[in-house]
Amino acid sequence: MTALPSLDEDMEQGLTELTTVDGLAGPAVRRARAWLSRAAEPGSVAFWRFVEDAGAVEAVRRLRSGRAPDDVRALVGARAGQDASLEDLLRAERCGARLVVPEDDEWPAQPLHCLTLATGEEPDDPRHHAPRTTAPVPPLALWVRGPARVDELADRSVAVVGARASTSYGEHVAGELGHQLGERGWTVVSGGAFGIDAAAHRGALAADAPTVAVLACGVDRVYPAAHGALFHRIAESGLLVSEWPPGAAPHRHRFLVRNRLIAALTRGTVVVEAAARSGAQATARRAQKLGRQVMVVPGPVTSAMSVGCHELLRDVELGAVLVADARHVVESVGRLGEDLADPPERPTGPRDGLSDVAVRVLDACPVRSGVGPERLARVAGCDVLDVLRVLPVLELADLVERTDGGWRLTPPPEPVAGAGRG
């Protein structure tokens, strides 16, 4: 049985290997990025710049041989001497997942370019870099589980986020948004958590539309554990996405790191419910910094789960847009002039379309006893001829009727006998 090449041997061969073949990364590049995804926690500006400058294969060689800069080596620590890259790739294959890297044509380069631009604005001195949990750093690779392509689903996508301890109101709105967006051909992206996230995912699935869950653990792990069936359904038609390799645990800090991907992969972020201090608010503010549209669903002023939403709407610099349904969302993030929301339907009444004179004559008509045109003209402040001209119009609309004594308002219909009795 032929022994598999070691990581170092693969990296040596990878120096002469083509980076991309037929739209896919070469084997050495893919293995290098698999190793990097486990070697260092995502979100470090210094680490991403090191890999970007050296290339994935050379970055691994330098880290393994101790030739990387001290600040970068410190981010890897004891992991530099470990290698689970082949095991991770095989484990992903067994659960129907794959590793998508920047060298693949499936890589969502356009949506993630905002992270590249934001990282370019970070200072050169590592001491002044943004904290890893909030730094706008592009991912080195994405572990993906599901049949859909990442780039295609991200092209027309919207993030729907909110509180885990959501109310029935919030879950209803999130489910409706997910369903309506799915019907319109938009992909709902969320975090797979309890509450608003789950409601948005389920709404999209109910519309037979793909949805994307960005996880803070391996794509082969179910967290929360109660969402096993939900994640299975998402993986059947949409995608489970993570920066962490298979088997990775959902540590608390990883949820903060992954939020930037939810914001970056989508055209805009909708916050359905959020407490005064919440991860959903943080995701919305990160979306705004990345040039994405922030949208907010208002709620009852008495609800603690809507305090964060109202604070976002009150923040003038954030530029958040109030939305009530998918029409408003699509209008905010869709193509200019093409995805406009239809105006809401307004109830119509018999007075709609009446001229000013007709309205004044109608208001001058008494309720009980009828009066003549001259009296109506005096009360309405118009000529008798004007009154005579509009009275037939009002009669045809069943707004006035003629009696022996003159004109009066048409009385309301008599209630049906016995109506309303149990």
Automatic annotation (TrEMBL):
Q: What start and end residues bound the annotated signal peptide?
A: none
Q: Which residues form the Smf/DprA SLOG domain?
A: 134-332
**Entries under Pfam families matching the protein:** DNA_processg_A
Q: Which GO terms describe its biological process?
A: DNA-mediated transformation
Superkingdom of origin organism? Bacteria
Q: Which residues form a coiled coil?
A: none
InterPro entries given in the database record: DprA (IPR003488), DrpA_SLOG (IPR057666)
Family membership noted in the UniProt record: Belongs to the DprA/Smf family.
Protein name as it appears in the record? DNA processing protein
| Species name | Geodermatophilus poikilotrophus
